[in-house]
Fold this protein.
Amino acid sequence: MFDYTKSVDNFRQYLIDDGKATTTILPYVSDVEKFYEWLMAKDTLVDEILKRFCVTSYRKYLVGKEYSVNTVNKKIKRLNAYNIYLISISKMTDMIVSKKDKLSIATGSEKEVSFSSDAEIVKDLVLYRRFI
């Protein structure tokens, strides 16, 4: 079984080497750890390579837990930084966390959000598989 703690520790060092402040590093590392813990609780095969489906499922989980739009977007942004790190060390070649993963506030309401439906995610996965 993949031990994510070493990867997360290396990510922490990457952020330190990049000159990030401790106040930035702590939540970034914490959110990546929480993502891996969530995956493991789902009995998902966990490895260092991020899977698009897992990221979008995690986003739906966060929305279902009624986190604020800003909190969900921060967590997605931190997974994006982790994705960039994994690419920088050649563990991954593709960005799978993108701007389209951010939630948007519906006009006139801070409670309503929009995000990809299951059908849109499946469509994206099918399209992605064609290019592999």
